[in-house]
Design a protein that fits this description.
It contains 14 helices and 18 strands. It is an alpha/beta fold. Helix 5 packs across helix 6, helix 8 runs antiparallel to helix 9 and helix 13 runs antiparallel to helix 14.
Length: 508
Amino acid sequence: MQEKIIILDFGSQTTQLIGRRVRELNTYCEILPYNKFPHDDPSVIGVILSGSPFSVYDDKAFKTDIAALRGKLPILGICYGAQLMAWEMGGNVESAPSREYGRAQLTEVEESNPLLHSVAPGSQVWMSHGDTITSLPESLRPIASTDRVPVAAYQAVDGEKLWGVQFHPEVYHSECGMQILRNFVVDICGSRCDWSAASFIESTVNDLRRQLGDDKVVLGLSGGVDSSVAAVLLNKAIGSNLTCIFVDHGMLRKNEFTNVMNDYECLGLNVIGVDASAKFFKELAGVTDPERKRKIIGKGFIDVFDEEAHKVKDVKWLAQGTIYPDCIESLSITGTTIKSHHNVGGLPEKMNLELCEPLRLLFKDEVRAVGRELGIPEHLISRHPFPGPGLAVRILGDITPEKVAVLQEADDIFIQGLRDWDLYNKVWQAGAILLPVQSVGVMGDERTYERAVALRAVTSTDAMTADWAHLPYEFMAKVSNDIINKVRGVNRVCYDISSKPPATIEWE
């Protein structure tokens, strides 16, 4: 039985970062809604309560039954989680005189405490809260503080395995953060630290064999690392019972359809390639709304896929390369849709297929680790994420074959330039965006009125947050010059220096 840590999600995006940090300790974890704790699961070895956008005293605040967890498993509350436990146990939580964001230093540390082992006074931690614990109940005692936060961390009295910290150990800027999480997960909860890419492959292949038996499966390939890893994993589990379908909607990168088909052939996958570009261009004609474009491409993909899947006899399952951030961004815990993903949300009833998503609980870096363990070539593993709708969400306004051709050329110059300058693997994602504006230029003795292209390159670890990549000026000058000189119809190149949040990585 795979032991695990349960992380209860109260609506904070840092919840996913907590999960990634626990996984880095070679410990499996699952992120569940705040009110869905699996009380009857014997594999759970500890509980972490996450942050939240709410205050504990808000009427709409998410609450969980702390009493039902106490005394049964070790508990660690982080930020809102710590405040919630203190509040529920009789302490006071109030709006802080001034908001506490950014760097702080621990001034007092109970170094003998199991949670704070090897954490020294003066260690930098990261604060991000507008409320603070102003008094603790008699059942809790402080174990760390900063100059502005008297209760930076606490523990239950009488040896109960319950702790809370008002800072964020999961973020990079908390110098002692991983040590604190290691103290909790390994020393306090007793994790065996036996979860790895290799163990995931072994357990997942066995699970897939039990789940699928001799059933036939179809999988929609995109050329990206997620669907590629899912395909190789399924191929390892069920072999010839897997049929992959790669749909070209006409908005892939330059030469991508041919290149990807060759890669899949080398991997020994059974792949059907379908050129459906004419269908998609027809259905997208005149459409400018970003969400409608995504919906049209999503439906079109399903329609084409469904037609091809019906040509394969006795298919019972549809496999997808859905990963965890896809699910998180499609529907947040507050019920707010951020953007739609073509591979999230289930299947149309007409397909009459069951859904198989072997990577659903993995983060992107974990997918890559699994891919390397499976022996997938590095150029596929290290490929930047690419949106399912392809260049359609990088062309602002309506979609035409001519616009796609322009963007393909500009994008190809940018991506190849990143590779040539040894920058490709230093950024998380990059691409070109065709803007719906034209500008005046001078080329030779002629005035031009042509299109503008924006370049986007970001650094990230999981796509939940991202910062713009600080690329060398010399490189940017070379790429800009090459695009303007080589791509007919473009006379201006810009660089996007927006972070996420607030700006998404893609423009649409």
